[in-house]
Give the backbone structure.
Amino acid sequence: MKIITYMVFLTALCSQGAMAANVGILSMSPESVVQALSSKDGWVEGHIPDAEAVDLQAITKSTEPLLMRVTVIKRYQEPGCGRIQIDIRQDGVPTKAFTTESFVFPPIQINLCQSGEPPQDAFDVRQATNEAQGASRKAVPQEVQ
C-alpha cells in the first residue's frame, strides 16, 4: 500500500512540475500571446504583475493576485497563427453578503499570429460586418431610408 501511495505522490509531483513550466508571472502584453502560440502545449498561465493588475483589482475591490491563462483554441494553416482565448480569474473578491468568492472575467478571443498580424485564413470580421450591413440596408423599405 505504501508503494502505491508513494507512486501516486511522485506522479502528482512530476505532473505539477510539467505544468509549472508554463506557469509564472505573465504580463498582459503581446509577448504572452506569442508565448502561447509558440508553446508546445498551446497555453501559458501566470499571475499578472501587481503594476498591471491595479485597474482590475480596483474594479473587483480585491488585492488578491489575478491569474491569466492564454490558450490557443485553434491553430491556422499559417505557421505561428491561431485563435487565442484569454481567461482572467481572481480569488478573494468581496460580495455584498460579506463573503469572498472567485471572480472570472469574461473571456476574450482573438485571431492572431506571432508577428502581431491577423492570420490570412481566419474569419474576416470586417468583411462579414460589411456584408451584413449591406444586406440589412437592402431589407429596409425605400420609404424608411
